[in-house]
Write a structure and sequence with these properties.
heterodimer, A: six-stranded mixed β-sheet, three-stranded antiparallel β-sheet, B: seven-stranded mixed β-sheet, 12 strands, binds zinc ion
């Protein structure tokens, strides 16, 4: 094991994960809003926000799918040491992490069942920037949004299709550096 | 590592509850199953709400607990002290000072802000339970949006009483999809559920968590010819004169004397401190 796999966890797990969870909950409850999320220092290519989200939400009970470049020895070892989550394929993932290009097609992930729509995957999408320069992004409406919100998305149609499945569907976090935003299945995208 | 578990629960349990809260927020009104833990208090004391609070609180929070509107009941005091001790949070009785408010059976009168979280203690999370005792069946009914029986029950109320008699735990429909139990709040509080704060619901014995993100559409079930009526007792508060707060009837002496006072004690105290008076305080002063 490389020495850096032992590093980068929470120094004060209970307090730091409580603070991290609140940021994660806040952005999921208010789609389009961006918050700081830090505490973990995961190995590259994982962002601080993605690593902190995994450390806060995942454990031996949650299957994690590492997509594309995220599936490397350093990340595998770090997850094994700090989180203990079993690494799985997309069809068994509770959480999936990677770039959008690596995570698609989203038809690979479980969307829950009519009786248990919660049995679905949460995707953590690593992006270069949560705000796109020069474009106002997609317009969001739905629970958590008083009027409308704006968000930069890698594409639009796929999130419209995901929302059409409601109450089934996938929930998305977008991470960049030490910042996070979210797009749950309940959000309508235009 | 600390020598006690922050907020009492171990980290793995809090993670499990946190994941359930996130699913609840993503699917507003849907009851997410979770593995409820034993808490050092009896079930009737709101172990579901306590577990949700435990998974939500950070050391930066200011915590308030109300039991039917009051901060000073045994139940409220004991939960407040529990988190003072285990989560090192500040506590308050002032609604506007609190970042997390755990409640049993009321929504505070003062509108909540975007910076606040309201945690409800829920005894029976399943709004269809009195129509159908089997969990497998109610789950199917929610899956298929089979809410006809619920409307039939409410309509039977109308034919029997001339109005819908349900006064507490009056069922709501969330974002046009899930019928949800708002916990045993008075129906007077139902319209407040479309609010700026995050609302989280925890049922310990029944092992369910559900949630409403801010500004989620919450509609009380009704009929075109019998629209929802959040009515309250037609009195002002005897202590502060408030006309639009929810009132409790209080026996004042052994001659059968009684008065109506705000159920939200912080709201009533704030109004009196600001100089508002009710008929009772006027009589006492005269
Ligand atoms: Zn009053």
């Amino acid at each position: 094991m490389q020495t850096n796999a032992l590093e980068g966890g929470f120094a004060q797990p209970a307090q730091q994960s409580a603070l991290a969870f609140r940021a994660i909950m806040d952005v999921l409850a208010r789609p389009g809003q961006i918050k700081d999320l830090s505490g973990a220092i995961p190995p590259l290519p994982l962002s601080i926000a993605a690593g902190t989200a995994l450390l806060t939400l995942c454990d031996t009970d949650t299957g994690v799918y590492l997509a594309g470049d995220a599936d490397c020895a350093a990340v595998r070892e770090w997850i094994a040491f700090h989180i203990g989550a079993p690494l799985v394929g997309p069809s068994h993932a509770d959480f999936a992490v990677g770039t959008w290009a690596a995570l698609v097609p989203i038809s690979a992930y479980p969307i829950g069942t009519a009786e248990y729509p919660d049995r679905s995957t949460t995707l953590i999408v690593e992006t270069d920037a949560l705000e796109a320069a020069g474009s106002k992004g997609a317009t969001l409406t739905g629970p958590g949004i008083q009027q409308t919100a704006q968000m930069h998305l890698p594409e639009v149609a796929v999130f419209q299709h995901n929302h059409a499945l409601f109450p089934l569907g996938l929930d998305f976090f977008f991470t960049s550096g030490s910042r996070i935003a979210a797009l749950p299945r309940s959000t309508e995208v235009r | 590592m600390t020598d006690y578990n922050f907020a009492y629960l171990d980290e793995q349990t809090k993670r499990m509850i946190r994941r359930a809260i996130l699913k609840g927020l993503a699917i507003p009104g849907y009851q997410v199953p979770f593995a409820s833990r034993e808490m050092p208090m009896p079930y009737g004391w709101g172990t579901g709400g306590v577990q949700v609070s435990a998974a939500t609180l950070t050391p930066d929070d200011t915590f308030k607990v109300i039991d039917q509107g009051a901060d000073d009941t045994t139940n409220a005091v004991s939960i407040r002290q529990f988190f003072e001790k285990t989560a090192d949070v500040e506590t308050t009785t002032e609604t506007s000072e609190a970042t997390v408010i755990q409640t049993r059976h009321r929504i505070p009168e003062e509108p909540l802000s975007e910076d606040q979280i309201l945690v409800y203690q829920v005894p029976i999370p399943e709004p269809l339970r009195f129509l159908e005792p089997r969990e497998t069946e109610t789950r199917k009914m929610h899956a298929l949006e089979e809410y006809g029986l619920m409307h039939v029950k409410l309509y039977e109320d109308i034919s029997r009483h001339g109005h819908i008699a349900t006064a507490y735990a009056y069922p709501v429909k969330v974002e046009g999809r899930y019928v949800m139990d708002p916990s045993p709040i008075p129906k007077f509080d139902n319209p407040k559920m479309e609010m700026a704060a995050i609302q989280l619901f925890g049922a310990g014995r029944e092992q369910r968590i559900y949630a409403l993100p801010p500004y989620t559409k919450v509609v009380s079930l009704d009929f075109e010819d019998h629209p929802f009526d959040p009515s309250k007792a037609p009195h002002p508060c005897g202590l502060c004169g408030a006309e639009h707060s929810y009132l409790d009837e209080v026996i004042t002496d052994d001659q059968g004397g009684r008065m109506f006072v705000c159920s939200d004690t912080d709201y009533c105290e704030k109004r009196r401190a600001a100089g508002h008076v009710g008929t009772l305080t006027q009589e006492a002063a005269a």
